[in-house]
């Protein structure tokens, strides 16, 4: 099983699949699933790309594997997209060293989350080989996780089977001994700054959008509302993600667009963070005037967001996953995570979900590599959960 799973990883990693560009990944998975023996009629896409802020080539890939046991339906999920920096990776298998590394300088490897896709293929092989001697299983391969869990947000629940799955095992990054049962909430937001253009040789007539931004960010940083945030016993974080603006060095910058985010397990505190940003940018815009006393302006807009969740240790999906790890010979410990995962949206849809880590290391960086020992453990755990009798 594990050798085939590694082969699948090596085939999946080089396939380009940045958010919104997952069609080639989905086509590969469909081809493999049909070769495994999953009927083509049991494989479909929803239309999640139609509700996406980013558009997209395809929706989520949903696979039904029928089971004869009269047990609750199980759901297993992964996401198909990688960060854009993984496009152009060149994986190299170092089997003796127990790892996969990247030969493409400056590129991420894309183990987040192609490892999980390979594990779901391994599960499909095991289920098909059992000729229905298992609970009904739904596999979901999400789109656009890396840009705010957008595919999971738009999941078509009607395509998951009836009744809905009783629980979900989501697969994503990290060391395999950690079971993510609580995840922070995130609100992305946009900031549009309108300055006043002027010739750079006569800048007094202008108001630079860049200086409005710089003034506001200096205030935000100085007052503790950027990066890790601790205020009155509450914790969160905030970050500037992207900045776009300007026409040329000879024009006072007339406009600038920012995408930022606030994170916290406390929904109210997330709103406090955003309110502090709004105050700082509004004051910066009002305080900068050109020679005629005119000012620029700022406006805020919403971006993709998701709510925090926390499952108790008594939740069946938590207990079942811990038990499966023990059967596979290792321990797994419930942890809280400050990075969003598709599980946030799955729980919001009413399906209890945990996230099992599958062996990525230094994800989203040029130093990313894959720990094959963790990958094998995660693979055995998922197959065990998909084939084990309930109770």
Tally of individual helices: 9
| Ends apart, CA distance between termini | 25 Å
- Main sheet makeup: 9 strands, mixed
Low-confidence stretches: none
How many strand units?
18
CATH homologous superfamily grouping of the largest domain: Zn peptidases
Number of domains: 2
Q: Helicity range of the residues?
A: 25-40%
Q: What is the general shape?
A: elongated
The percentage of residues in β strands lies in 25-35%
Could you spell the SSE succession in H and E letters? HHEEEEEHEHEEEHEEEHEEHEHEEEH
CATH architecture of the largest domain: 3-Layer(aba) Sandwich
CATH fold-level assignment of the largest domain: Aminopeptidase
Mean pLDDT: 96
Could you tell me the radius of gyration in angstroms?
23 Å
**Structural class from helices and strands?**
alpha+beta
CATH class of the largest domain: Alpha Beta
């Amino acid at each position: 099983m594990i050798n085939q799973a590694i082969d699948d990883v090596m085939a999946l990693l080089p396939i380009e699949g940045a958010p919104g560009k997952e069609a080639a990944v989905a086509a590969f998975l469909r081809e493999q699933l049909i070769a495994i023996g999953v009927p083509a009629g049991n494989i479909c896409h929803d239309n999640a790309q139609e509700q996406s802020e980013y558009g997209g080539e395809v929706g989520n890939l949903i696979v039904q594997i029928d089971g004869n046991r009269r047990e609750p339906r199980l759901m297993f999920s992964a996401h198909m997209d990688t960060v854009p920096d993984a496009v152009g990776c060149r994986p190299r298998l170092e089997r003796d060293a127990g790892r996969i590394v990247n030969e493409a300088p400056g590129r991420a490897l894309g183990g987040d989350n192609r490892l999980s896709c390979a594990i779901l293929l391994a599960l499909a092989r095991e289920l098909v080989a059992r000729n229905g001697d298992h609970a009904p299983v739904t596999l979901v391969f999400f789109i656009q996780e890396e840009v705010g869990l957008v595919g999971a947000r738009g999941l078509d629940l009607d395509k998951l089977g009836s009744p809905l799955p009783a629980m979900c095992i989501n697969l994503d990054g990290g060391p395999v001994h950690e079971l993510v049962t609580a995840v922070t909430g995130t609100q992305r937001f946009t900031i549009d700054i309108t300055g006043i253009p002027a010739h750079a040789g006569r800048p007094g007539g202008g108001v630079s959008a860049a200086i409005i931004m710089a003034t506001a960010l200096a205030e935000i940083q100085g007052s503790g509302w950027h990066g890790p945030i601790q205020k009155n016993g509450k914790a969160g974080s905030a970050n500037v993600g992207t900045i776009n603006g300007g026409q040329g060095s000879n024009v006072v910058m007339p406009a600038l667009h920012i995408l930022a985010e606030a994170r916290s397990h406390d929904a109210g505190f997330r709103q406090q963070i955003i309110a502090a940003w709004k105050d700082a940018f509004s004051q910066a815009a009002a305080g900068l005037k050109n020679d005629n006393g005119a000012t620029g302006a700022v406006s805020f807009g919403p971006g993709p967001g998701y709510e925090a969740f926390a499952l108790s240790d008594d939740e069946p999906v938590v207990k079942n996953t811990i038990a499966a790890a023990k059967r596979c010979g290792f321990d797994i410990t419930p942890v809280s995570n400050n990075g969003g995962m598709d599980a946030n949206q799955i729980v919001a849809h009413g399906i209890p979900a945990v996230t099992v880590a599958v062996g990525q290391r230094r994800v989203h960086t040029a130093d990313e590599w894959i720990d094959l020992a963790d990958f094998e453990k995660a693979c055995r755990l998922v197959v065990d959960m998909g084939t084990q009798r309930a109770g």
